[in-house]
Amino acid sequence: MLSIHTRTHELENGLTLVLAPDASVPVVAVNLWYGVGSKHERPGRTGFAHLFEHMMFQGSANVAKSEHFERVERAGGSVNATTWFDRTNYFETLPAHEIELALWLESDRMGFFLEALDQATLDNQIQVVQNERRQRYDNQPYGDWDERLQAMVFPPDHPYHHTVIGSMEDIGAATLDDVEDFFRTWYRPNNAVLTLAGDVEPLRGIELVERWFGEIPAGDPPPPPPGIEDPGPVIGATVRDRVHADVPLPRVYVAGRVPSFAHPDFYVADLASSVLADGRASRLYRRLVRDEGLARDVVSFAFPLVHGRTFMLSWITGYPDSDPEALETGLVREMEALESVTAPEVERAIALAETQILRQVERLGSRADLLSMNQLHFGDASRMNHELERLRAVTPQRIRDFARTHLGPDNRAILTYLPEETE
Amino acid sequence: MSDSHSAPHTSPDRSVPPAAGDLRPFHLPAPAATRLDSGLEIRVLPQGRVPLVSGCLVLDSGETAVPGKNAGLAVFTGDALLGGTEVRDGAALSEALEELGTSLSVSAGWDATTLAFTCAAERLESTLELLAEVVLRPAFPQDEVERVRRQRLAAIEQRGKDPGDRADDEADRILFPTDHPYHRPLGGMRETVPELGGDHARGWVAARYRPGGAGLVLVGDLDPAEADDFVAAGFEAWDGGPPERHGLPPVSPPEPRPIVVVHRPGAVQSELRILQPSPPRAHEDHLALQVGNSILGGSFTSRLNLSLREDHGFTYGVHSRFVTRRPGGVFTISTAVGTEVTVDAVGEAMHVFNDFVAKGPTAEEVARARDYLAGIFPLRMETTAQLAARTAEILIYDLPDDEYQSYRERIRGVTPEMVATAVGTHLTPATAPIVLTADADAVVPGLEALGLGTVEVRE
């Protein structure tokens, strides 16, 4: 069992602070999760949570555009942020003696962001994000797979129906009023978790966070995401999307709804995908890559999302001359065959996960991120210490049951990419 | 543990950043260095933060040493290595490793083949037994060899459709003459890979997978004496002197400057590369060039990124870097820009590049870059896997044993004059080839009008 010692402290304004002291290296990870992501976006503004994250680097009352990066780099630290379905995170990893710099920067934008807002930086970041979309989705073989799969797995009134990056049109439609509303609604201390992991003594950490964040006023409790929460346990049918695109090799994706990350059965889905495709002893690799020579590569995973249901997906890539029907048949057959999963397969998947979990907590940055996640989603940072126990609670029988209830033809979104005919 | 705490809130002075506290020492212990009689170099570094051990076995078996007609052989052999041993087939080998929770990767680069793993501390002995079995007794069964060949060929097709990979490969082809290994893609070509088979792989292993010139690094929660015993048990039967090393001829950029557009009809974005040859890893100007690179394009607040991204919105990001290999390297500026702003972005990137090399950095920029590189260093030495990989680089590039212990002091000794001189000596924007994967119809007339050189379109 892991034993990352944690302590939490709640400020009067509702900001939750998680402290995880570790003086083994003179480094501190500062990690701030806001409870807002793409699932909170309203129609016509897909991609906005992510665009907003970019705007958070464009300056605040006392910090100029680019100064955030400049100051942290000068201090010998790293800094970034990511936007996801359920949340947005901001993080700095710095030499421990520079901790207060990160707290100054983060508190300035949490408290005084709107004072620096202007149209020119919004226009600039709309262009930057549109280029990000082009680079990752539009100009990349298979780049739009998640857009296509999510639209099939979740109904239009569920917030996971659309991607985090959003549509080109919606990104371009963002206004300064949108930015201001979004900030006032979501970027409040009572909708955030701040974690300090590393070489910081807890009482000192509390004192510093009180100093820099204590005066920021709380906001109204944040509203729920728009649309429905639970779209039902399965899609209800096999749905398909077939794309002829400028891709080198045929590829088949199969996705379906699975229990949310907040449900104990999520770990069943997680291990089922690991049995399918983690490592070369996995089922898809052994059968489809090694034995049959049908696939070139295989992937399977479940997204850890908390709003009602989440989704699991698997994909296999063929060879230039592969028959796409054979790819689909092979993948579906192996997913269904999880009804015969064996104990050694599950034990291997757990052994691989164990090493992986240790590797995650080894890095202070990812340790802090896991603590913030467990605190924000589950109200308990120390829940992280029991991740392996949750995995070990998954028996082969539970995976067999899961295969019957979740991997059948009533829960399949099948996306096929085919190389365009060339002259 | 949880508590609630209320303190009176006085507003802190936010107008200036808070002063830093006292710098805390960062001590990076040096690994213990020993050598087996066979010539295998051993580096062991105990580090007990988490119950993991990471290992790297580096073999003097890079693609640079592969003759042109077998291009891709080092990569092919590395990929086929996990296809089975004399005592168990590929599936059984994978099971044995994964039961231990160990993922073992084999990757062949230009200078070396590296076998890397991370395992739970108590599984080190079993992991090393399997590592030795894989390296000393590979079998290359026919079905595995054929599968790996197909996978390699499919990977080549895939690179051809990825606009970024396509630009990288075209750039190397333009920069290096046809008889130079760097002219070709690391994984080989459609013409060479189909010819590779089990005999090639076995021959390559006999010639290059030898303890002479090889090194084994272990970092993590281990007992050094015990680790030495495990290594001796697994590798004492291994013999063979160091493989031959051939130098490479110096490379001069082709003149006049080539500007090549790989045509991708309808592309919404252009992949841009500006590149030139650069010094090898062990060159005395290495650190000054790293500082210069940080200022030009190696950090978020670099001149290139602030201009192309934060001022102009041409791109999601632009990066420059020195890829430093044993006999020589490549300096590259890379970015992806919108089709309609491609011409402006090329003009601006060249302007920033020219200006930096002509005028050199400011003292403030050098101070900032030095602080950044020195400060970020402990973050790059955080995990057992990072420490093992960095230590392995010492062996691959024949660096001094105290390379990392002295790094922060040396980087702080880099002056603006040293950066200006190194940049002026090694970077030549006027002749650096420019390569794009782009919609040629949309960008070529504008590129011609920039006056940087004649533009050639390739289909």
Provide a brief overview of the structure.
The complex is a heterodimer of chains A (423) and B (459). With 423 residues, chain A is an alpha+beta fold.
Task: Write structural notes for this entry.
- The complex is a heterodimer of chains A (423) and B (459).
- Chain A is of the alpha+beta class.
- Helices cover 41% and strands 19% of the residues of chain A.
- A 6-stranded mixed β-sheet of chain A has the order 1-2-6-3-5-4, with helices on both faces. Chain A has a 5-stranded mixed β-sheet with strand order 7-11-8-10-9, with helices on both faces.
- In chain A, a hairpin with a 5-residue loop joins strand 1 and strand 2 (16-21).
- Chain A is globular.
- Chain B is an alpha+beta fold.
- Chain B contains 15 helices and 13 strands.
- In chain B, helix 3 (124-136) runs parallel beside helix 7 (224-235), helix 8 packs across helix 11 (363-376) and helix 10 packs parallel to helix 15 (440-449).
- In chain B, 51% of the residues are buried.
- Chains A and B meet through strand 1, helix 2, strand 5, helix 3 and helix 4 of A and strand 1, helix 2, strand 6, helix 4 and helix 9 of B.
- Strand 1 (7-10) of chain A pairs parallel with strand 1 (2-4) of chain B.
